[in-house]
DUF7730 domain-containing protein
Amino acid sequence: MSWEMCFTICCSTFFQPTGRRRDRSRLLPRNPPKRQHPPRPPISQEMRNEQAECPLFSPNFPAELRLSIYEAVLGDQHRLMHVIPFDDHYLEAINVMYTANKFSVKGARGIEAFHSVTPQPQWHQIRHLNISTIFLTPRQYYPEHEWFPPDNYVQWPTSCAIVQSLHGLRSLQVELIVRDTHDRKNETLVEEEALFSILKPLTLVSAPLFEVEINMAVPETVLKKLGELTFTLVVKYKPYEHSLFSAL
């Protein structure tokens, strides 16, 4: 093959004519069709196999030790094994899922949503709960705010009553951020009546370890109006983060 022919082939391969635009849609790979997963079979209501042949379920194996194993596997805060789906359906492990883990929810809507999907027997097995929320004042601006943040003043007392129904609760931590709508970096402008309406429903909740963390010093007038507190009030100043309120 002569060098003239090689040069012609190379030019036609690597240099396209500028007068004609190539169809990029033909060059780009097309997305493969989505796989259609078969529907999940319905949950069986039949009695489970006792698995008597398994040493873990042997009559000679102490039940207390078996529950300790469940707690170590399902309640570890660093190895989140409880999020891995299994189909074993060990009834003994259900309560451990709720007693050995700390649950975190956001705002009044988070509390009510969590309560609505938790079976009633397991709801009372919850031992540790964290609630974080954001309020803006004046209260009249956000009576029944649709989106979070900020939280809903009307829905908040109802959600606190739901938390109050947790009979087995041992530790409760509530993280509050309260700011003024017009000057969100100045905590002294927060409406006192709104602050009272936020803290008052929490005084009806009790737990052996109950801490409310707030980003501002609560005025003495509000504290006197609240009366005796059922929680430890911790003031932790937090800088204003525009990203949390960018949609407002």
